[in-house]
Amino acid sequence: MSLPHPSHFLAAGQSAEVFRLEQGLVLKLFHDGVEAGIVEREYALMQTVQATGLPVAHAVEQREVGGRRGIVYVEMDGPDLLAYLRRHPWRWRWALDQMAQLQWEIQAQRLPLLRSRKALLAEDIEGATLSDRVRAAAVERLDQLVEGDSLSHGDLHPANLIVTSQGLAVIDWSRAARAAPPADVVRSEMLMRFGPGQAGGWWEERVRDAATRHYVDRYCTLADMAPEALAAWRPLVALAWMRHRGPARDEAFAAYVEAALTTAGLPSLAD
């Protein structure tokens, strides 16, 4: 099968491009060099997640196109939450409350056979550019934390939420794993505050920070989660993210990491 026509292109990410197909379907076409096992794992993972009844894009089949591996999904009809908020900024409170609610519902699912988020974090901490002292202390602390078997999306932020006629739906489950809920919440916190796609204006930074505080506060109220639970995971998730994180608000992120390390009683990055 030949590659889709460029006019059918919808979006692109680090690992794949998305094209619109016929009959309400889309093709997530992985880039050359992405291992077949990664594609197969995502497809198998989606079968598991779909069975929970959560609002997700259903994976229909695997398909090879132009020598590249892909997964065919049912198209979600609607804008992503970030685009929606650009057009309806007065609905920010509703949007963030719905995001917190959906994340809580995701984590209510128990999937003990999924891969371990702790193992993934440990691998990224080992591969990040850190001093031996910080790395060793972080890995030791990570080993002490209890993981559990809650479903974790691993990349939940407004651009991965679709506003449909039935409410919010979640896309891009490629980073999903079993995890302690606070690990997923602080990952979302970091993506919302320090993730890519920022214009760099001071007003945007303030909006992102305020929106993130509202989302985290709302989630903690729903889940009855204490701030100490987030503080335990925050430095470890941050150090792991440093392995792959792109540039965005670097000074603010560095200050965030240092504060998280200090609160958790871990060594400074300067050590």
Automatic annotation (TrEMBL):
Signal peptide coordinates: none
Domain (Aminoglycoside phosphotransferase) ranges: 10-191
InterPro entries (alphabetical): Aminoglycoside_PTrfase, Kinase-like_dom_sf
Pfam families linked to this entry: APH (PF01636)
Protein name: Phosphotransferase family protein
Organism: Sphingobium rhizovicinum
